[in-house]
Predict the structure.
Amino acid sequence: MPRNLPTPMLMAISANTLSLCFLLDLQLVSGWEYAWTGMGTLSWNGNSYKGVGSFGSVNDVQEGSDVKADGTSIALSGIDPTLLNESLTDIQVSAPARVWMGLFGAGALLAAYQIFGGTVDRPQVGVGPAALTIALALESKLANLQRPSNRRYTAADQRRYYMDDSGFNWVEVQNDIALLWG
């Protein structure tokens, strides 16, 4: 599906010297974490993004015209083995995550465009000869459509979310009523 790029992005594309970068907004248990694929700290959108350089990667982000849940994954390598447990306990499954594609030039981020928004799935740990890698699968919000709802049409279930609602009190009574028709 074609997208309309914002004006700052179109202006940045027409510039002479650009480099592509990716930015990540990830909610962890300890709070929001911001990272980008460059070096140093980048201030953008009111946040400070930590540079992970070549240690960070973003897989393909797919989009199609079909209604299906396409996801992507991100990875961070070069993690100190002593920080593995702390890193894994800080990851929050089903937390929001956003991936931005940015155009970097003249020492600054010229424009960015969100290419993925979804939630975090379970982490996968890869053990290499030099360091550890943690990969996170990111799911589209459409993935929730494939999951069954655990809600029930009972008064008790309704009161879990709306304490004063008594509308479902009559649903349970309907099970025991024999109604004659015609």
